[in-house]
Amino acid sequence: MKNKEIIGLREALNEVDYIRGKSFAYAVFKNKDILDKEIETINKLKKEPHADYITFENERTLLCQLFAEKDSNGDAVLQYNPNGTQSFKIDNMGEFNNEYVKLAQKYEDVLKDMNDAKNEFDDFMEKDSDIELKKIKIEDLPNDISASFLDKIKFMID
After folding, report:
1. Quick count: other Cβ atoms within 10 Å of Cβ 98?
2. Which residues contact residue 23 at a Cβ distance below 8 angstroms, ignoring those fewer than 6 apart?
3. Measured between alpha carbons, how far apart are the two ends of the chain, in Å?
4. Contact 45, 121 (CB under 8 A)
5. Can you give the residue ranges of every domain in the chain?
6. Which residue from 26, 42, 8 is spatially nearest to 130, judged by alpha carbons?
7. What is the reported pTM?
8. pLDDT, tens only, 82-124
9. How far apart are CA 135 and CA 27, in angstroms?
């Protein structure tokens, strides 16, 4: 199991923790505790943003607003992206890019620091986890379980 799967596993346990059975309930309880500790460790690995990153983001936003198309009220126009996010609809992309390059150069160390931290965290999340979960025998599972239920708890079946 990869580190990035740990949060999903914890959520899966929340979905099945209503199932009765002493052995199963105990395994869910123990695994929740194990996963919670690991999630706490993962959260500690997330690096706080560089002190100047917020300043960079504020300046970048102002730059976007400056070069954005304006509506009839003079407000910057937002556009909806295919991934569900919003962004400013830039009027003159060439000029915007020139100014953005200058801004990025001004904050080069900050952006490098943030990018390095993100890459380190992403690398960690792709690594195999060394946690050992409490296993349960299939015969200790309730008789009326579904395939989707089994899929959610497959990581803890011995």
Report:
1. 10
2. 136, 137, 140
3. 15
4. yes
5. 3-47+129-156, 53-106
6. 42
7. 0.69
8. 988 999 999 889 999 999 999 999 999 999 999 999 999 999 9
9. 7
